Amino acid sequence: MIRAVIAGTGGYLPARSLTNDELAAEFNLDTSDAWISERTGIRRRHMAAPGESTADMATAACRAALAQAGAEASEVDAIILATATPDSAFPSTATRVQEKLGVTRGFSFDISAACTGFIYAVGVADSMIRAGNCRNVLVVGAEAFTRILDWTDRGTCVLFGDGAGAVLLRAEDAGCAPNPRGILSTHLHSDGRHGDILQVEGGLVRMAGREVFRHAVSKLASAVDEALAANGLAKSDVQWLVPHQANLRIIDAMGRKLGLPPERVVVTVDRHANTSAASIPLALAEAVRDGRIKAGDMVLMEAIGGGLTWGAALARF
Ligand code: UT7
Questions:
Q1: Whether residue 214 sits in one domain with residue 103
Q2: How many angstroms does the Cα of residue 13 sit away from the middle of ligand 1?
Q3: Could you give the number of structural domains in the chain?
Q4: Which of 52, 145, 219, 280 is the 20 to 30 Å CA partner of 11?
């Protein structure tokens, strides 16, 4: 049986990082470090430099993932890139990354599923690998989210940051192994009836935060249950939760639901804020690089975002 194994992970964060106080001062916001950190867990975020593109950040993350996998760019069959902040409608950001990496074969395309984009991209890549369409796929989440924020709306502009994360998914024949490595399953959902509670309108993000929060807690919980049931697993089989990083209160609620101690939940929202499609691969890359996530560990990922879109993915490292 062919499985998509996570062969490498990589992340990139822009050099500039602003604390809540620095952000408030720079954009003249009527807010406070206390309000932001108590409601969300966010303490700082990175901001792309002028001229630093989504493709630039994505390329850096891809290079790190390839290096960790010991793979060359020439081996890449496909690049699937999730973003809500593409550098242009076309060429896609994925094809810009393809060019920057010097990849001249295969195919590349963007996925639009807002903060759930990485889970969607993993789902598509996993299906294509299992179907035998490609062997080495770079799956990327990359965002220059601070470019679509309304700096007069304190309810949204304090919540987001920029960055990119990537994984190299590689086809591996698991044979009849009892506990094969790789993506076990993905579970993708959307419901366009709730599109207006989190959307880009006139080029800027608009969010009814409380409404989104309410959907997040119930929809993420059901996606987690679905992922466990599909694999015949119990909560106690999960070693790591790598959630979308929007709000520490939502992250904590999912950790409690799984019965995981806080040290088994990977948290970056304090330092990265919400980097939308980049948040899960950035968190994964950090936890793999610092040795927390190890070979054989069962990792559960989940996200919700504009659309509404939501979903979960289970992987054994
Ligand atoms: O990544 C996609 C998924 N996104 C999410 O999961 C986000 C989900 N939502 C949330 O995380 C929370 O709803 C927020 C953090 C966005 C907001 O927290 P909240 O507890 O729902 O606050 P609220 O929007 O209901 O606002 C409460 C108060 C309001 O004042 P009044 O009307 O009670 O006087 C706001 O005007 O807080 C005020 N407020 C602020 N005050 C200081 C809103 N933003 C700020 C701010 N600083 N930055």
A1: no
A2: 25
A3: 2
A4: 219
